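Deliverable D4.2, example record:
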Amino acid sequence: MSRIIAGIAGGVPLASVPGSATRPTTDRVKEALFSRLDALGMVQRARVLDLFAGSGALGVEAASRGASTVELVESEAKAAQVCERNARTVNDAVSRRAVTVRRSKVSTFLERVPPGPHWDLVLMDPPYPLGESQLTAVLSAVAVRLAPDAIVVVERSARSPEPDWPEGLAHYADRKYGETRLWFAEPVPAESAATRLDAAEGA
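Output generated by the structure prediction step:
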C-alpha cells in the first residue's frame, strides 16, 4: 500500500487505483524525487500541478510537504475517484483545502488555462500508450504556463526515449531508478531562446 512519506501527513496510507490501467510511482522513486525537490526548495509554498495523476500520490505528497496549492488532473473515472479520496485525506491532515481534483483530459484542462505563470512545479507520469508527439504537445502547453523558476518532472519507463522537449523547455538532468527514469526540465526565457537562435543563424 502506498503512503505519504514525509511532511504533516507523513505515514498516512493512500488509496490505490484498482486494476492495472495505472502505473503507481513506487515509494522508492517518490522518496528520491522529493528529496531532490526539497533540497532545491521547490516544494514549500509551491503551486503544484500533477498531470495524469493516477491516485494523486505525487501531488498529495507535495501538499503534505508544504505546497501552497496542488491540482490533480485525471480523466479516468475510477482514478479520479481515488484522487478525490486521497485529496480529502491529505486536506484533513493539513487542515486546509490544499488539493483539488480536476477530472479532465490533460489537453482539455490545459487549453482552459490562459498562458501565464500558473505553476512552480509540474509532475507528469504519462501512461505508456501516450505517443511521443502527444507528450511533446502536452509539454508545449505546460511550458507557456510556468513560473520563471519552475521545474517540470516527467516520469517514464527507463526503456522509453528522452522526451522531445518543445521550445520553451530545456532538459537539465535525469535520474534512473530501476525500471523508472525521471527527466527534469526548466523553462527557457524567451530572450535566451532568441539569443541562441540569433547565434545559430550567425554561425
